[in-house]
Specification:
Blueprint: H1 4-7, E1 14-17, E2 27-28, E3 39-41, H2 54-59, E4 64-67, E5 78-81, H3 85-96, E6 105-110, H4 115-128, E7 133-137, E8 140-143, E9 146-148, H5 157-169, E10 174-178, H6 181-185, E11 194-199, H7 215-223, E12 229-235, H8 241-244, E13 251-256, E14 263-273, E15 276-285, E16 289-293, H9 298-313, H10 318-326, E17 335-339, E18 343-348, H11 353-364, E19 370-375, H12 383-396, E20 399-402, H13 412-423, E21 430-432, H14 436-445, E22 451-456, E23 463-466, E24 469-472, H15 475-485
Parallel strand pairs: 2-3, 3-4, 4-5, 6-10, 6-11, 7-10, 11-12, 12-13, 13-14, 18-22, 19-20, 19-22, 20-21
Antiparallel strand pairs: 1-5, 7-8, 8-9, 14-15, 15-16, 17-18, 23-24
Helix pairs in contact: 3-5, 4-9, 4-10, 11-12, 12-13, 14-15
Length: about 500
């Protein structure tokens, strides 16, 4: 069994009381868990300060506590003081799990949009090259093909290090993760030095009382990834790129669509040929080869670049990269469920006005005869999102099928009525079908030649929450059921 001394080798600390040679059977930060012979880290959260629970964890047999302020320590309990308990939690966890990230090539993605799709693109490329890969992000953790659900885009540091250790045990050579601004600010990724850091794009998000106070603060924390990596790979076309890189300590490679980008996409075009619907471009600059991406839209070109450049940097050959991207599918992110000469069906996570308008604008570029969108909105959330999604759908789609999403504790009919506040003034055609399963069936069974049908709002989610109860529900699965009944798949 490790001792506390074993876990403190890379931490600045002061021994307040006790011995460093007490057992360290594990590291915990939740006082409700088993604490016997474990090191308890006192985290100051937004609602509770776990320094309050020191007497309880002492009674439960904790071997030591990590504190960041003066507090009464029960007799016989070892106490260590640090400047930041969150940073200490990350460093202690890394040491407890034997620093697993040092045994893999580590790749971190940051940005407002595109992180999930880009990470899965790179994962697909590396796996196509025969590599074992672990991934952590919005959709959960994937360790050598096994899925684990996660609560946050960037989980707490202990959970992260636990996943990393599982990756090493599974033989993963590469670790890819989405690195959120909150993950950087709250030291969840402290102690990880990334081999590659990738920046996708930046726009206002996560700004509020419990997140970032200003856009500038949000941008600052995103930029901190580039003080913690060897090579930064950045979207130089984004207007925030230069400010985000301020103070960076890494080598920088750029990508985009402009002439001075190190890697750039030229001759971009939309492709819809039979069962293929996506984008194509010619890569130029430091590498030169044609690329097809099996996800529609200009943003898929940028996402592809953010996977191509890291792959090339890691020594993956162009043929493998192109083969992976041509057949790429990302669960719930502009996911092409079905495509033919007759019609296409797409599932996407777009769940606000901006993302809905962006998605529908992208699909318009493929010149469908009709653009049909199936959507609802979540209950117990800001009603303005409903107005904005309704307005975007009314203006951009030929037919809106308004239905339920996760209504939670609100009546579906009330949520749909709010959607119509934004939709109806546009004059857009719509139909109301409260049952989401039936709404999907209606849209697909009634497909006309040339239709593109977008089922949006839930994306990768595999549940529906109604009246506080969650039941299994997948937009993709429901669409496939109808397509099978129609003899399409």
């Amino acid at each position: 069994m490790k001792t506390l001394r074993d876990l403190l080798t890379e931490i600045d600390y002061t021994l307040i009381q006790g011995s460093l040679d007490v057992p360290a059977a594990d590291v915990v930060y939740d006082s409700r868990k088993d604490c016997k012979d474990k090191v308890f880290v006192c985290i100051c959260g937004t609602t509770r300060d776990s320094h309050e629970f020191i007497p309880q964890v002492a009674e439960k047999g904790a071997s030591a506590v990590i504190v960041e302020r003066d507090v009464e320590i029960p007799e016989g309990l070892t106490a260590i003081r640090v400047n930041s308990a969150r940073r200490a939690l990350a460093e202690l966890s890394a040491a407890y799990f034997d620093h697993p990230t040092r045994k893999m090539t580590t790749i971190g993605y940051t940005g407002t949009k595109g992180k999930t799709t880009s990470t899965y693109m790179l994962k697909e490329i590396l796996e196509k090259a025969g590599k074992k890969v672990g991934l952590i992000g919005t959709n959960g953790a994937v360790i050598d093909g096994t899925f684990h659900a996660t609560k946050n885009t960037t989980p707490e540091s202990y959970e992260l290090q636990n996943y990393f250790a599982q990756m090493v045990q599974a033989g993963c050579e590469y670790m890819i993760m989405e690195v959120s601004s909150q993950g950087l600010m709250m030291d969840r990724v402290a102690g990880i030095h990334f081999d590659l850091g990738i920046f996708t794009n930046l726009s206002p998000d996560h700004i509020g009382p419990n997140e970032h106070k200003t856009f500038e603060e949000y941008r600052y924390w995103k930029g901190q990834l580039f003080t913690r990596c060897e090579t930064g790979i950045v979207n130089a076309d984004d207007p925030n790129c230069e400010a985000l890189l301020e103070g960076h300590t890494c080598r920088v490679l750029t990508y985009g669509c402009k002439d001075n980008d190190d890697y750039r996409a030229e001759n971009i075009r939309h492709l819809k040929e039979g069962a293929f619907m996506g984008a194509a471009f010619d890569l130029a600059g430091k590498a030169d080869f044609p690329v097809q991406v099996g996800i529609p839209g200009l943003f898929s070109v940028y996402n592809a670049l953010s996977a191509i450049v890291p792959a090339l940097t890691l020594g993956i050959d162009p043929e493998t990269i192109c083969e992976a991207l041509k057949h790429i599918r990302v669960n719930g992110r502009m996911e092409l469920v079905y495509a033919s000469e007759d019609f296409s069906v797409i599932v996407d996570y777009a769940h606000n006005g901006v993302s809905t308008r962006s998605l529908l604008t992208t699909l318009r570029d493929y010149q469908p005869k009709r653009l049909v969108v199936v959507f609802g909105c979540g209950g117990n959330r800001d009603p303005h999102r409903r107005y904005e999604m309704g307005e975007a759908a009314g203006e951009m789609a030929d037919l809106s099928v308004v239905t339920a999403d996760n209504s939670r504790n609100e009546a579906v009919e009330n949520i749909m009525a709010d959607i119509h506040i934004g939709l109806d003034p546009t004059g857009g055609k719509s139909v109301d079908i409260p049952d989401r399963r039936e709404a999907i069936r209606y849209a697909i069974a009634g497909a006309q030649p040339g239709d593109v049908i977008a089922i949006i709002g839930k994306g990768h989610e595999d549940y529906q929450e109604i009246a506080g109860v969650r039941t299994h529900f997948s937009d993709k699965e429901e669409a496939e059921k109808v397509l099978k009944e129609m003899g399409r798949i």
